[in-house]
Amino acid sequence: MVASEGFQSRIEIHLRMRPVNGVAVADYGLDHEEGTVEWVIPRQAAAGMHNHQREKYSFSFTGILGTESKQDEVFDSVAKKVVMGALDGYNGTIFAYGQTGSGKTYTITGGTERYVDRGLIPRALSLTFSEVAKRSEYTYQLHFSYMEIYNETGYDLLNPDHETKSLEDLPKVTMLEDEDNCFHLKNLSQHLATNEEEALNLLFVGDTNRMISATPMNLASSRSHCIFTVTVEARKAGEDTVRKSKLHLVDLAGSERVWKKGIDGQILKEAKYINLSLHYLEQVIIALQERSQGKPRHHIPYRNSMMTSVLRDSLGGNCLTVMIATVTVAQEQLEETISTCRFAQRVALVSNQVMLNEEVDPSMVIKRLKQEIKDLKEELHL
Ligand code: ADP
Ligand code: MG
Questions:
Q1: Is 98 in the pocket of ligand 1 (CB under 6 A)?
Q2: What are the tens digits of pLDDT across the range 287-319?
Q3: Which protein residues have a CB closer than 5 Å to ligand 2 (ion)?
Q4: Cα-flanking dihedrals φ and ψ of residue 141, to 5°?
Q5: Which mutation among 100, 106, 226 tests ligand 1's pocket best, with the greatest number of atoms within 8 A of CB?
Q6: Which residue of 93, 218, 238, 303 is 20 to 30 Å from 363, comparing CA positions?
Q7: What gap in Å lies between CA 361 and CA 240, rounded to an integer?
Q8: Distances from the Cα of 124 to the Cα of 82, 192, 318, angstroms
Q9: How far is the CA of 343 from the centre of ligand 2 (A)?
């Protein structure tokens, strides 16, 4: 790796509010300039308080994408710089966090009906290939992978056997750790795509497989994480170095607290856990937050779950990371909305150390040396 100290960058947090049709919208104070939002929970007389007594919660964000925000706007303000960074050799991650139904999939992948509803992944692919075409002095190699993590088990969404085999019969994606503490994923296929259409097709195949595999698990689709990864390799003509970076686009499991059901299916009480791997994500974020506040904390528990292991660089490591907190503004969802905002405030304190991922490429050195020998031979008329 070329010596580089890199630069510190806080994880950016953006709030995206889903429009709610015909549902009473909660009372909230929004200040776009300041990036602040204030949720107000009206208190019930039944709770022993005066009728109009309210409780206020204020939160600050890097940016707020209100209910009227459009997909292209979200891409421009949140994702564009991360995609451009990945093409320049910087790791990037964009992840959506929020309760089920708050717009994570709509934001990351998009709506299925209309072109204008395309989400961040198709827009990122479009920008990537148009940018690559402009940079004629570089040779780019772009590989794509698409993984789903459910119950701490990884599945390759681009495994062609999805069509014929059930989920249990597919090889599981497993993690291998090398001597340098780097994780490698086994059984996760990497696909080369040379144009936007090929890459979009991979996304489509993965999304279809996600839907097929969701059927036996039924509710599982909201309990699984999906990570779409672009691995970028860029070589500049006449140079011996290669830039290698990764761009992760992540659609996390629903952040809602799980409610325990009784035998007759009635909801009994809130189980004390959130989706287990999101619980581990919280623990990693809390540890990183404490570290950023100068508390002596040497251990960050990445290894507790597959998702935090895979996203290790994205959280407190070498990566430009953006979180999109998705919320609905419906009154009855306010508790979850506030809990999403609270989590986002913690994430906002996490600092990453971003570095240019450039290294000497032996194959380029050999190529150059071979050319030099050839030139010399020609000069000497050998
Ligand atoms: P999640 O993935 O968080 O469970 P979805 O992305 O599936 O939620 O969104 C739930 C529903 O709301 C979908 O029908 C989706 O198309 C719609 N939706 C979400 N966000 C928006 C938005 N910003 N504008 C219009 N429709 C949206
Ligand atoms: Mg979803």
A1: yes
A2: 998 888 888 767 899 999 999 999 999 999 999
A3: 104-105
A4: -125, 125
A5: 106
A6: 93
A7: 6
A8: 9, 16, 20
A9: 19
From the alpha carbon of 326, which atom of ligand 1 is closest?
Answer: 3
ipTM higher than threshold 0.85: yes
Q: Which atom of ligand 1 lies at the shortest distance from residue 103's CA? A: 6
Nearest-angstrom CA–CA distance, 262 and 214: 24
Q: Decide whether any atom of ligand 1 lies within 6 Å of the 100 Cβ.
A: yes
For residue 106, give the ligand 1 atom closest to its CA: 6
Q: How far apart are CA 257 and CA 99, in angstroms?
A: 9
User: How far is 162 from 275, CA to CA, in rounded Å?
Assistant: 25
Helix axes 196-217, 120-134, angle to 10 degrees: 160
Instruction: Please give the angle made by the CA atoms of 91, 345 and 252, to the nearest 5 degrees.
Output: 55
Please tell me the distance between residue 105's alpha carbon and the centre of ligand 1 in angstroms.
7
Q: Which helix H or strand E contains 228, and what residues bound it? A: strand 225-236
Q: What is the pLDDT of residues 9-67, one digit of tens each?
A: 999 999 999 988 655 566 678 888 889 998 887 766 455 555 566 788 999 999 999 99
Cα separation, 259 vs 366, whole angstroms: 60
Query: What does the block give as tokens for 248?
Result: 């992760």
Distance from the alpha carbon of residue 143 to the mean position of ligand 1, in angstroms: 28
- 106 CA → ligand 1 middle, Å: 5
* Amino acid 218: pLDDT: 43
Which two three-digit tokens encode residue 262?
A: 């009784």
